[in-house]
Amino acid sequence: MITTECSADRDVMVELQIVARGVRDERVLAAMRAIPRHLFVPPNQRAHAYEDRPLHIGSDQTISQPYMAAHMTQMLELHGPETVLEIGTGSGYQTAVLSLLARRIYSIERHKDLADGARTRLERLGYGNVTVICGDGSQGHSPCAPYDAILVTAAAPEVPDSLLDQLAEGGRIVCPVGGTEVQKLMIYYRSGDAITTQGTIDCVFVPLVGKAGWGEDQAKRWRDR
Fold first, then answer.
1. C-alpha span between 77 and 72 (Å, rounded)
2. What is the reported pLDDT for 4?
3. Number of C-alpha atoms within 13 angstroms, CB side, residue 186?
4. How many C-beta neighbours within 10 Å does residue 73 have?
5. Which of 64, 99, 107, 138 is catalytic?
6. Is 64 a catalytic residue?
7. What is the DSSP string of the chain?
8. What value does the mean pLDDT take over residues 50-75?
9. In the 3-class helix/strand/coil scheme, how is 11-27 assigned residue by residue?
10. In this predicted model, what pLDDT tens digit does every residue of 156-213 receive, in sequence order?
C-alpha cells in the first residue's frame, strides 16, 4: 500500500534517521518512504510512529526503530527475485518493507495474537506476496526452503543451525547475536558447504525464543532485568 497520509513524516524520517546514517540503497529508501508505519503500531503509539526509537506493540515485543529496519534490510542486498524468510513478524512492518523488495516473503511469529494481527493487517493493506506463519521461528520453515535471504529480528545466542540449513547457495542471513545486554548484528554467507561471517554494529533486540534460541525462563529473566 502506498498512501500520501503522513508522507511528509516518512520523508523526514528517511532523510534524518536513515540516509543521514549511511543507508544508500535506493530501493530500501523508497520502501521506507512508501510503507505507512503508523498503521503498524497500536493506536496509542501512532503519534510516535516516525520517531527514532522502537515502540511496544504488545506481547513484550517491539517494532524496531526505523533506522535499524532499513539498515538490516540493506544488509540483505535484495534485488527483486528472492524468496525471503523473516523470523519475528511482530506487527508486520518489516514484513511489508521486505514485500516491496523481493518476490516472496515467509514470516514466522510465535505469538498467535501478533501473527493473526499482522496477517490481517498485511492482507488489508494489499501486501499479497506475504505468508505469515505462527510457530517457532528459531526452527525456520523448512517446507518452503531454501531461502535466498533470512532476516532474524530477535537476538539469538548464536545463529540457529536450522536457519543455516535452510539458506540457499549464495544466500545470506542477517541476525543479531549475543547476550542479554548487547548483541552484534551479524551477516552469514553461504558458498557451497562453507559459511562465512561478518560482524557489523552493536544492537539491542528482544530475545529469539524457541528450541534453537532462548528458553522461556531465560527470556523472562531477560525482560525482567
1. 9
2. 64
3. 19
4. 27
5. 64
6. yes
7. ----TTHHHHHHHIIIIIGGGT---HHHHHHHHHS-GGGGS-GGGGGGTTSSS-EEEETTEEEPPHHHHHHHHHHH---SS-EEEEE--TTSHHHHHHHTTSSEEEEEES-HHHHHHHHHHHHHHT-TTEEEEES-GGG--GGG--EEEEEE-SBBSS--HHHHHTEEEEEEEEEEEE-SS-EEEEEEEEETTEEEEEEEEEE---B-BSTTSB-HHHHHHHHH-
8. 96
9. HHHHHHHHHHHCCCCHH
10. 999 999 999 999 999 999 999 998 889 999 999 999 999 999 999 999 999 999 999 8
In this structure, which amino acid lies at residue 177? V
Residues 6+ apart with CB under 8 A from 29: 14, 18, 19, 23, 70
Is the pTM higher than 0.85?
yes
| CA–CA separation, 147 and 142 (whole Å) | 9
Residue corresponding to grid cell 543507508 = 23
Query: What integer best gives the mean pLDDT of the chain?
Result: 94
